[in-house]
Amino acid sequence: MKNALVYKANALVEASYRLSLYEQRIILACIAQVRRDDTLTDQQLYTVSARQIADMAGISVDRAYQHLKAASERLFDRRVTLHEAPNGQGGSRVRLTRWVQTVEYRDTEGAIALRFGTDMVPYLSQLTEQFTRYALADVAKMSSAHAIRLYELLAQWRGTGEREVSIEWLREALQLEDRYDNIRDLKRRVIEPAVEQINEHSPLWVKWSQRKTGRRVSHLGFTFGEKTSKKPHKARKKKTHTDTSNKKESASGARYGIPQSIIESQAYPGESYDDAALRILDERRHATKA
């Protein structure tokens, strides 16, 4: 799973749900197994072992094994609220569904297997537009489920370098319910640890700020960019959660900071420009670490 990629429809990235850290790791490890050249159905079974979780997260097998069964059992009851169709079309319908329809625990193998719920399949497969892609390794070492969610919300706008969300929307997206009602608690327990882990473990650097409406803090703003960049990327336009166009291409033709001419010269046959740009970024990042 070292070089595995996660693909999610933007509508799923912005859905409302809450998963624990190990539930996130299981779900992402399974999503990373979804083949891009094959049709996903709700009958396919995906297996994740304690060894894979341990290798992915850099923890002991015993520790991974200890959490795997409990997390997989909770996953069966976890639900997700979807506000848009996979292709991004909005509407008045809100769909409440479940992540998985089947969970198997294979005791002798130290592994679990699951089938995604029928309603979840379109948000994970055959994604040709309005989707978010990132490397599983980008979030593998994070120890906060909130950090993983925040990273996805930033990766969705990777080509803009800036995003602003209302606190009310963020609380609903993370399903915080009645927790951290005080803004100080929210920042201390959710935002600050998440930003710290993104800066430490992911290929993005991120800074955050707050905006007030009257006397009340109403919005959080995030500025971010690739760590390989020499200078912070300056966004052309501030993005909010209500802007769902997800235009990744700048006026100069660059995507994710990669000039169009370079993308065209290095793109594989049949590879989209967005996928080519992200692959080039991955290759540059690995070359820098080498």
What features would you highlight for this structure?
290 residues; Arc Repressor Mutant, subunit A; three-stranded antiparallel sheet; 10 helices
Explain what you see:
By secondary structure, this protein is of the alpha+beta class. The protein has 3 domains: 1-141, Arc Repressor Mutant, subunit A; 143-247, Winged helix-like DNA-binding domain superfamily/Winged helix DNA-binding domain (Arc Repressor Mutant, subunit A), CATH 1.10.10.10; 258-290. Helix content is 36%, strand content 22%. The strands form 4 sheets. A 3-stranded antiparallel sheet has the order 2-4-5, with no helix packed on it. A 3-stranded antiparallel sheet has the order 3-7-6. A hairpin with a 4-residue loop joins strand 6 and strand 7 (111-116). Helix 3 (50-57) crosses helix 4, helix 6 (145-155) packs across helix 8 (183-201) and helix 9 (260-266) crosses helix 10 (273-289).
Overall domain count: 3
CATH superfamily membership of the largest domain? Winged helix-like DNA-binding domain superfamily/Winged helix DNA-binding domain
Low-pLDDT windows of residues:
230-240, 242-252
* DSSP summary: helix tally: 10
Determine the strand fraction and express it as a percent band.
Answer: 15-25%
Beta-strand segment tally = 11
List the helices and strands and how they pair.
Layout: E1 5-9, H1 10-13, E2 16-17, H2 21-31, E3 46-49, H3 50-57, H4 61-75, E4 79-82, E5 95-98, E6 100-106, E7 111-116, E8 131-135, H5 137-140, H6 145-155, E9 162-166, H7 167-173, H8 183-201, E10 204-213, E11 216-226, H9 260-266, H10 273-289
Antiparallel strand pairs: 1-8, 2-4, 3-7, 4-5, 6-7, 9-11, 10-11
